[in-house]
């Protein structure tokens, strides 16, 4: 590896809304090392300062429109006018293009979630933003906000699953069902968790995603044991 190479580089972008150019910081993948993942797939990085989660969202400094590589370039009728009215007209010029703090990263996802909803992006996309906000609050040990955004994520993932809007994305049916189950359990919605875990386990003979099947089985056992202990108490 080149000794002068840093983990960070600047990516040149064009805003999908106002079409103006700007740059945003990204992290070179060769510098990223994940120590382990939480049950809801939250990555725990070896170096907290080299966290790609901080830089997924591109925030246009000119108009405030915030987006990721998952956004489509197409704006449904009237949505661009709505975004200009609700985001750009209120925008106070600020630069998210440099190294971000955890709070700046959280704010960038909140902006992207809002812009995504106004633009009518897929539910699975906005669910991903809420989940990442929850992960970042977890790192800050802000449990109330972590739980709040996990709840938002579950609601969006359920809508995505029911409407099948995750098709054509990197999210598989097994993974979205498992995430709904896992997040539901984490926010205390045990009935919903059990229902979606059973949906995952039913697919065990028809899927190649064996790791998720095993994770679902482990979670199922954990819920059963917890329930048994509560009944004995």
From TrEMBL:
Pfam family, any one: DUF2225
Extract the InterPro entries matched here.
DUF2225, TPR-like_helical_dom_sf
Q: Which protein is depicted?
A: DUF2225 domain-containing protein
- Source species: Heyndrickxia vini
């Amino acid at each position: 590896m080149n000794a002068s190479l840093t983990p960070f580089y600047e990516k040149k972008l064009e805003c999908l809304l106002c079409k103006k150019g700007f740059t945003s910081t990204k992290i070179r993948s060769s510098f990223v090392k994940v120590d382990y993942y939480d049950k809801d797939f939250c990555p725990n990085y070896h170096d907290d300062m080299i966290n790609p989660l901080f830089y997924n969202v591109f925030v246009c400094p000119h108009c405030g429109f915030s987006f990721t590589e998952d956004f489509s370039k197409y704006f449904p009728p009237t949505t661009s006018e709505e975004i200009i009215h609700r985001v750009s007209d209120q925008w106070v010029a600020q630069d998210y293009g440099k190294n971000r703090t955890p709070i700046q990263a959280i704010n960038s996802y909140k902006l992207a979630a809002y812009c995504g909803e106004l633009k009518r992006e897929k539910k699975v996309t906005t669910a991903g933003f809420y989940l990442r906000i929850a992960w970042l609050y977890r790192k800050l040990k802000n449990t109330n906000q972590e739980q709040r955004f996990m709840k938002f994520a579950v609601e969006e993932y359920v809508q995505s699953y029911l409407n099948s809007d995750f098709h054509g994305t990197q999210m598989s049916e097994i993974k979205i069902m498992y995430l709904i189950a896992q997040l539901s359990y984490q926010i205390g919605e045990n009935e919903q968790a059990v229902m979606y875990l059973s949906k995952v386990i039913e697919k065990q003979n028809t899927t190649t995603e064996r790791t998720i099947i095993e994770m679902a089985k482990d979670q199922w056992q954990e819920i059963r044991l917890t329930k048994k202990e509560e009944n004995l108490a």
